């Protein structure tokens, strides 16, 4: 029989392995701390030859009892790894349960012919499952999308403790630079992740400050321009554009061409190109440009005065 390609969910639904994740194994998920470790110690550990034989039976024959023994004999490993993630504000029972999911994924993918112990292989699946669960549960906003961001999420608290930076406020620039260098990430990544470690905050969180009582959302400042400011800026832009259009009309054809090519084009023409086009010297082109610019300035000022004259009256 070929290796069974079964998802972790399907593996949990099989009768024998389900007893490891629920049944007798459910006691592990319903208790915490030393009590959980005491529960898993009831399951005997396997020798190398025993776990190799069980892994082959599951791989070659789909023997659910063999998979069950592999899972239960390593529940203590999943619980031990889960205990190292207690500081993230999540129920330890749920973390242990996620570790058990990773353990079952490892059973489903373990190849006994590679020569190493099952625990060496399973620990990576256990950690990955727990870390994915923490990242999913930590915030409503998705974080840790890349390998470096995930590593930063789980290493930042340890790095901060080494620097005695226990406050929840922003880190000092020198602390940010040192952590970023040690973890091989950008300074901005450290700043952003440190702020995310504070978790989500409700906009309806009550605040009390020197007699003021309200919600956090009441104190938020909208830094975008007001509708009135947007309308005023739009009107002023239209007026300047209209004034410029009228001002250019006072120029001769050659002045207008040079002015637009040198002052209004996205990629201004060079003096050499315009000199060759009009068969004059570079200096003459420069003089025409300066004179045209002065004419436009004077015409724009006159036009703007005319536009504001009725308002002033």
Molecular structure report:
- This protein has 313 residues and is an all-alpha fold.
- The protein folds into three domains: 8-138, Up-down Bundle (Four Helix Bundle (Hemerythrin (Met), subunit A)); 140-211; 227-312, Winged helix-like DNA-binding domain superfamily/Winged helix DNA-binding domain (Arc Repressor Mutant, subunit A, Orthogonal Bundle), CATH 1.10.10.
- The chain is 66% helix and 3% strand.
- Strands 1-2 form a two-stranded antiparallel sheet.
- Strand 1 (206-209) and strand 2 (212-215) form a beta hairpin.
- Helix 7 (75-83) packs across helix 9 (118-138) and helix 15 (271-278) packs across helix 16.
- The radius of gyration is 35 Å and the shape is elongated.
- Residues 1-31 have low confidence and may be disordered.
Based on Cα principal axes, name the global outline.
Answer: elongated
The overall pLDDT average reads 78
End-to-end distance: 97 Å
**What's the helix-strand series?**
HHHHHHHHHHHHEEHHHH
Low-confidence stretches: 1-31
Biggest sheet architecture: 2 strands, antiparallel
The figure for the number of domains is 3
Major sheet: arrangement of strands:
1-2
CATH topology-level name of the largest domain: Four Helix Bundle (Hemerythrin (Met), subunit A)
Computed structural class: mainly alpha
| Contiguous helical run count | 16
